[in-house]
Amino acid sequence: MTQPQISSRLADFSADFRLERVPAEVRTRAKHLILDAVGIAIACTQWDFARVTLAGLRELAGPGGDVPVIGHGESLPLRDAVAMNALLVHGLDYDDTHPAGVIHATTSILPAALGFATRLGSSGRDLLAAYILGMETTTRLGAAAKGGFHQVGFHPTGLIGTFGCTLAAARLLGLDAERIVQAQGIALSFASGSLEFLNDGAWTKRLHPGWAGAAGITAATLAKNGFVGTRAAYEGRFGLYNSHLGALAEQCDLGLITSGLGETWETNNVAIKPVPACHFTHACADAASILHGDWKGAPVKRIVARVPAGVMKTVCEPIDNKRRPANAYEAQFSIPYSVATGLRFGRFTLDALEPAAFQDPQTLALAALVECEADPKADFPRYYGGEVLVELADGRTLKHSEPVNRGAATRPISNADIVAKFHDNAARAVNRAQADRILEAVLSVEQGSARDLAQLLGTPARLENKQ
Fold it and tell me: 3-state secondary structure string, 78-116?
């Protein structure tokens, strides 16, 4: 008997999805993932790229708008607000990651679900249900590629996020399974996201999740009104995996997309970032930070950073650019800079994204000594491990390995840690009383409405516009 197409199976799951069937611990974790994203978005209001993006979107939108922009005290039309809020969540690269999917799922799903739920007047329960549904499907769609999208230059957060946002939007619209099939087929023509930004530190990656959110809302709404989409969105001859991966499509495991739906909850496997940089850099940044106490500023001859082969293109190449990041974004995607920063200061925080930090001569001198090697023992993409060896001029060698990155499923960051991270981030732009109000609203989202939450998040923050 022929198996139903993947889009049909996802549609059936989505049409029948109910929040009461989600285990309590998954709902609790989901709310903390939302809290983490909100704290990052609030902190992100302080950065120049946020101001520039809002100016451009405001110019396109013209007067009016009914969806609040986080931390800015103003509203935009639905899809523009989704694009802006997603940029705020993703802009500092401090947002969560699903390791197997190699994807930032919350950064597209939450702004899309929140914005659309606000427009539709949905309850907080429906918002939470749509968010969890989007997380469960997006992460599986990413995992099926086995890390392949990065290898051919696509950014899964934008590319795959489009489909998860489509399913979340369809859930909020209450579409039946057939319309949800059509919506996914429409989304196939919208999905996008290029990794070319890695070569020059362009800001374009920050736009990917919001574009995914706006595309998902558009696809679902077109399907609601009868627009016809292709049915084999994923496994078709020119479906997602074959068209984007080419020969690498052969390594995909499409069975992962529907395996365990409604039984195994991938939301629990989403990793919180302890470091505000590409997740691929974390283990080496942590390893270097741990070596900081033993190093004590001794003259260095050579530094070796070992990372999974699958991340070399993203955080190690081209090596000259990585050793001298030209801007904050290049710094966040640089193994040499993250190692140099960790070794010198014993930590990598948002302060490392300031021009004074990534232009510091002493830090750059250390980064120039970093050589990157592929580690054949790395368990990637299950973990984003790393190892740092520091050869000192006096003949000593300092070495530390972090085979399992902090935040991975076997080294989880607790909900209490997420609350602490939220307060650290929120304190950069709002006072403690406002932060506490937001925390309470997010963690009790089922008792409120999507609009009430969106309006609270839209309360103006202090704006400083950092570079």
Answer: HHHHHHHHHHHHHCCCCCCEECCCCECCHHHHHHHHHHH
Q: 71 with 88: CB under 8 angstroms?
A: yes
Among residues 384, 389, 379, 424, the alpha carbon closest in space to that of 406 is found at: 384
The alpha-carbon radius of gyration of the chain (Å, integer) is 21
Q: Find the length of the chain.
A: 467
Q: 452-458: long-range contacts (C-beta < 8 A, 24 or more apart)?
A: 452/124, 453/114, 453/124, 453/127, 454/67, 454/68, 454/114, 454/115, 454/118, 455/68, 457/38, 457/41, 457/68, 457/70, 457/71, 458/68, 458/69, 458/70, 458/71, 458/72, 458/73, 458/74, 458/75
Which pLDDT score, from 0 to 100, does residue 382 have? Answer: 83
Name 192's Cβ contacts closer than 8 Å, sequence gap at least 6: 158, 159, 162, 208, 211
Closest to 81 (Cα-Cα) out of 62, 58, 59: 58
Element (H, E) at 32: helix 24-44
Reported as type and span, the H/E element at residue 371 is: strand 370-374
pTM: 0.89
For residue range 15-73, what is the model confidence (pLDDT) as tens digits?
999 999 999 999 999 999 999 999 999 999 999 999 999 999 999 998 889 999 999 99
Q: Which amino acid belongs to residue 439? A: L
**Residue for token pair 């309590």:** 24
| 349 plus 396 within the same structural domain | yes
Unique residue bearing structure tokens 């050869």? 391
Q: Which of 402, 421, 442 is the last residue of a domain?
A: 402
79 in a structural domain = yes
**416-459 pLDDT, tens digit each:** 999 999 999 999 999 999 999 999 999 999 999 999 999 999 99
Q: Is the pLDDT of residue 466 over 70?
A: no
CATH (domain of 296): 3.30.1330.120
| Phi–psi pair at 61, nearest 5 degrees | -70, -35
Residue 311 is part of which domain span? 279-402
Rounded CA separation 214/115 (Å) = 10
Q: Is 398 left (phi over 0), alpha (psi -120 to 50) or beta?
A: beta
* Whole-number Cα distances in Å, 29 to 68, 156, 211: 25, 23, 26
Whether the CB-CB separation of 212 and 158 falls below 8 Å is answered with yes
Number of domains in the chain: 2
- SS3 at position 413: coil
| Claim to verify: residue 129 and residue 40 sit in the same structural domain | yes
